[in-house]
Write a structure and sequence with these properties.
Blueprint lengths: L1 E6 L4 E8 L6 E9 L6 H19 L3 E5 L7 H20 L3 E5 L1 H9 L6 H11 L9 H22 L1
Parallel strand pairs: 1-4, 4-5
Antiparallel strand pairs: 1-2, 2-3
Length: 161
């Protein structure tokens, strides 16, 4: 099974695709969608949606997972993040993918064992769990892979219930 994990951001949206189904997970692809901060916000949403449609087409995930919006001190940033999530969820729905949504703390807990882990710890554990020679290139991409790993773990425990 292939799982697409997405870490939403209005400037950098991370994505990661893993192959799972055995005790080991394999990294298929990870990267970031970078938007031009000088573009109008609707154009930035279009950039994100277009790039994610390409990832879905290229990697053919079976399911997807997205980080839930976290509480932000800056209301304007929280609103923009929610709008990015809306565009991402639309792309995933268009592709007919089942989508899991997880809080940042749950993702960190699933990957590192610590719901308050920092980005470096998440990146290190993603590298370790996937047995990668090098860490995933950016924090946004490694966070997205962590979202996919969290979804894989949640699916595995759901089967046991």
């Amino acid at each position: 099974m292939r799982i697409l994990g997405i870490d939403c951001g209005s400037h950098l949206t991370g994505y990661g695709v893993i192959e799972t189904g055995s005790p080991r997970h394999l990294l298929v692809e990870a990267g970031v969608v970078k938007t031009n901060q000088k573009d109008a916000f609707p154009e930035r949403l279009l950039t994100i949606a277009t790039a994610l449609r390409e990832v879905v087409g290229r990697c053919a995930p079976d399911e997807a997972a997205v980080e839930e919006t976290f509480q932000s001190v800056n209301a304007a940033s929280a609103i923009k993040l929610t709008e990015v999530r809306g565009a991402v969820l639309l792309v995933l729905a268009e592709a007919g993918l089942k989508v899991g949504e997880y809080s940042p703390a749950r993702i960190k807990l699933a990957v590192t064992g610590n719901g308050r882990a920092d980005k470096e710890q998440v990146q290190w554990m993603v590298r370790s769990l996937l047995n990668l020679a090098e860490p995933v290139a950016s924090f946004d991409a490694s966070d997205a892979v962590a979202v996919a790993l969290c979804h894989a773990a949640s699916r595995a425990t759901a089967v046991l219930r």
